[in-house]
């Protein structure tokens, strides 16, 4: 016989559990001045040092994307410098830029993993250093094939390691102005693209391609200094609650140490149906996204030989940059659904691509380019905010990294397929018709319930009564709620991800709480024959039913909080009046 006093206690009574929670909260409060709820809560400052981070991210974003977007200028000089009677010099030179672009977006996956494991700032510094080394070594290369390694792989990896963190760090400092800040940062690519379009031809003509690469490496070196301003405000293990030696935390820590995928990959984001469907939709839509960007100059040369095709790209870049700021601010407005904005941008972009062959004048092409630039700006400035809406700020790092990684496939496949159709047909009519279909299909794919529902909850969560009322109005809500309930009021923050997660588990049966209570209240001896059986059942019971009980309690709290929120809306209006 095993005496209960000296044996392991399998289940805790309510009084014991409550006492343990109070002791735990007291230890946390005494050590860090924060409760468990305070430790798990995170409120970005929405300003202050965040604006310095915003400007530095703009410069990083502009440098990386500016070098990629202006490769066509370097491509012309590269053909002349490395020709040496090589009949395949055009193919080899074009492949250098293709490798750089593909590696940049593909390696964003590993950049996000590295940011989680080693830190955002450390990853960005390493990336800026590698990019600088890649451009500097390219200046001393005399064989085209070696540029695949230096300019293609080394610069591509470095660009990815510094580019992906530049988007993720914004979520550490902003929430209410998330759309505007992403618009400002992505506007940097338009600024640097326009600037490098004017500067690179001058450098290539005066100092040749060697010293042009050296100048670009110096620009990449400055990214090391700018990335040092990125101080993360939270990490996955920064919460004080993770420091407690609870059964669940110890089990999770041991499991993470023993499982490779859980140690390096955030598999939680792939359990989100909204994120998976959104990523697939974007991958489909981007198959024809860059076709017009790459082939509009050649189309202009074939159909309007007296006009300058680069003017279309300039018009596209200008409207793209302006729309990133304008629509980034619009996306922050209350009740705005960012998914629907991005969906409309994809649809209009696809229609514009289909209409390019029907344009009978160069002025029509300019109008189409201006409209396509607006769509491009809307699409780019909403990538970060939507990712934060769907998976939350603590999961957005790898979510953005994997999202950019999937872009490498359509970015690499789309333009070459259009070029193949051009060589096959002798014109761009079929190529542009085929390229216009994927964006329209991608826009339709955004209609899946898993995507739209998530963003609808996110748009509702922006309706923050406490942030939009006076101090008197806030005190009125607290006093009225406390008087009605007879107890002190508690402000509960409701997140869209919590509601969605509860919705997905709403069909789970309630746990057998009575069995737990009965066993915990027994004071009799536990037979030896039942000891091992109880230990086995304890693992299964505490690992499943207790989790369901916690979710049930959380669901009740959320329901009560929503009711309080709706009841107090009128009180806020009266207080403001």
From TrEMBL:
Organism: Sinanodonta woodiana (Chinese pond mussel)
Any one Pfam family match given in the protein's UniProt record, by short name: MFS_1
Domain of life: Eukaryota
Biased composition (Basic and acidic residues): 528-541
Keywords: Membrane, Transmembrane, Transmembrane helix
Identification of the protein by name: Monocarboxylate transporter 10
Transmembrane feature ranges: 49-73, 93-111, 123-141, 147-168, 180-203, 209-230, 275-297, 309-327, 339-360, 366-388, 400-422
Annotated stretches, region: Disordered: 1-25, 522-553
Record InterPro entries: MFS, MFS_trans_sf, Proton-linked_MCT
């Amino acid at each position: 016989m095993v005496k209960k006093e000296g044996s392991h206690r399998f289940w805790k009574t309510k009084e014991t559990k409550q006492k343990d929670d109070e002791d735990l909260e007291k230890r946390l409060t005494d050590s860090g001045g924060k409760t468990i709820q305070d430790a798990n809560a995170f409120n970005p400052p929405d300003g202050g040092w965040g604006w310095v981070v915003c400007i530095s991210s703009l410069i990083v974003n502009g440098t990386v994307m500016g070098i990629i977007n202006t490769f066509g200028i370097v491509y012309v000089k590269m053909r002349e410098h490395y020709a040496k009677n090589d009949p395949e010099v055009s193919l080899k030179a074009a492949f250098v830029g293709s490798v750089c672009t593909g590696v940049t977006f593909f390696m964003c996956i590993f950049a996000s993993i590295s940011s989680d494991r080693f830190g955002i700032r450390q990853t960005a510094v390493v990336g800026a250093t590698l990019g600088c080394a890649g451009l500097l070594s390219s200046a001393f290369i005399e064989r085209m094939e070696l540029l695949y390694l230096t300019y293609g792989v080394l610069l591509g990896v470095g660009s990815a390691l510094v580019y992906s963190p530049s988007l993720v760090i914004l979520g550490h400092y902003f929430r209410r102005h998330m759309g505007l800040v992403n618009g400002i940062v992505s506007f940097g690519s338009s600024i640097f693209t326009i600037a490098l379009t004017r500067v690179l031809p001058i450098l290539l003509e005066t100092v040749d391609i060697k010293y042009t690469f050296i100048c670009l490496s110096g620009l990449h070196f400055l990214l090391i200094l700018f990335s040092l301003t990125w101080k993360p405000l939270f990490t996955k293990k920064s919460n004080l609650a993770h420091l407690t030696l609870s059964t669940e935390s110890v089990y999770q820590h041991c499991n993470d140490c023993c499982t490779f995928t859980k140690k390096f990959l955030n598999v939680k984001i792939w359990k989100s149906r909204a994120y998976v469907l959104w990523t697939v939709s974007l991958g489909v839509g981007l198959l024809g996204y860059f076709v017009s960007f790459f082939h509009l100059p050649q189309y202009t040369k074939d159909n309007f030989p007296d006009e300058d095709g680069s003017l279309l790209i300039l018009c596209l870049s200008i409207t793209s940059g302006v729309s990133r700021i304008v629509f980034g601010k619009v996306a922050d407005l209350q009740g705005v659904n960012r998914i629907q904005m991005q969906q409309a941008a994809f649809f209009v972009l696809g229609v514009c691509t289909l209409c390019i062959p029907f344009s009978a004048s160069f002025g029509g092409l300019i109008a189409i380019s201006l409209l396509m630039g607006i769509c491009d700006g809307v699409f780019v400035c909403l990538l970060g905010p939507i990712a934060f809406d769907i998976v939350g700020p603590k999961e957005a790092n790898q979510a953005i990294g994997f999202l950019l990684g999937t872009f490498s496939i359509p970015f690499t496949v789309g333009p070459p397929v259009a070029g193949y159709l051009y060589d096959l047909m002798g014109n761009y009519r079929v190529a542009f018709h085929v390229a216009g279909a994927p964006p329209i299909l991608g826009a339709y794919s955004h209609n899946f319930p898993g995507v739209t529902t998530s963003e609808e909850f996110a748009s509702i969560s922006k309706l923050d009564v406490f942030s939009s009322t006076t101090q008197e109005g806030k005190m009125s809500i607290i006093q009225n709620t406390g008087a009605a309930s007879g107890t002190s009021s508690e402000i509960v923050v409701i997140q869209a991800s919590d509601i969605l997660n509860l919705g997905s588990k709403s069909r789970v049966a309630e746990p057998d709480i009575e069995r737990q209570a009965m066993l915990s209240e027994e004071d009799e001896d536990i037979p030896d024959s039942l000891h091992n059986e109880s230990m086995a059942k304890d693992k299964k019971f505490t690992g499943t039913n207790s989790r369901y009980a916690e979710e049930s309690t959380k669901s009740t709290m959320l329901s009560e909080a929503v009711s309080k929120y709706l009841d107090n809306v009128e009180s806020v209006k009266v207080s403001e009046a």
